[in-house]
Design goal:
This protein has 152 residues and is of the alpha/beta class. Helix content is 18%, strand content 30%. The protein has two helices and six strands; from the N terminus they run H-H-E-E-E-E-E-E. It starts with 24 loop residues before the first helix and ends with a strand.
Length: 152
């Protein structure tokens, strides 16, 4: 059974020529085959995509820019699952937050001199300040969210 990707495998050393085989020789090879299959399953086909290597693809995501969702709303606004959202309130607004399949963090900037209501899923809603940026994050698929004001 493969240990990758949940852990790195410590392989059984192959005995030096001329020494007694103290492990099942077939098992030594099977461990390597199992781990190779686990790596293939984790990376899938063509993990480098259009890049020269997988490392180059991962390096390209460092410092990458992402699209910013810009919206105007009053009433109820469903915050999209996006890295950054700029919301201009045109009236009192109640937010709803998405239900990601895993964890997520959204940078949310809200403007407008109206009342902002956070959803009940936000553990400790921060006070609203027009033009402030909030980091909203979940680690349980959106059941609970934490929101903090990161700038005024």
């Amino acid at each position: 059974m493969a240990t990758y990707p949940s852990a790195l495998k410590t392989f059984t050393p192959i005995p030096v020529a001329g020494t007694a085989l103290v492990t099942d020789h077939r098992l030594v090879h099977q461990e390597a085959v199992d781990e190779l299959a686990a790596v293939q399953a984790e990376l899938g086909t063509d993990p480098s995509d259009t890049y020269a290597t997988v490392k180059a693809r991962l390096d390209a995501t460092t410092g990458a820019t992402y699209p910013v969702v810009t919206a105007s709303a009053s009433g109820t606004y469903a915050v999209p699952l996006a890295p950054a959202v700029v919301l201009t309130m045109t009236g009192a607004t109640t937010l709803t937050l998405p239900a990601p399949t895993q964890g997520a963090t959204i940078l949310l900037k809200v403007t407008g001199a109206y009342a902002l209501t956070w959803p009940a899923s936000v553990a400790s809603p921060p006070a609203y300040t027009a033009g402030a940026r909030y980091a909203v994050t979940t680690d349980d698929g959106g059941v609970t969210w934490d929101a903090v004001k990161v700038s005024a």
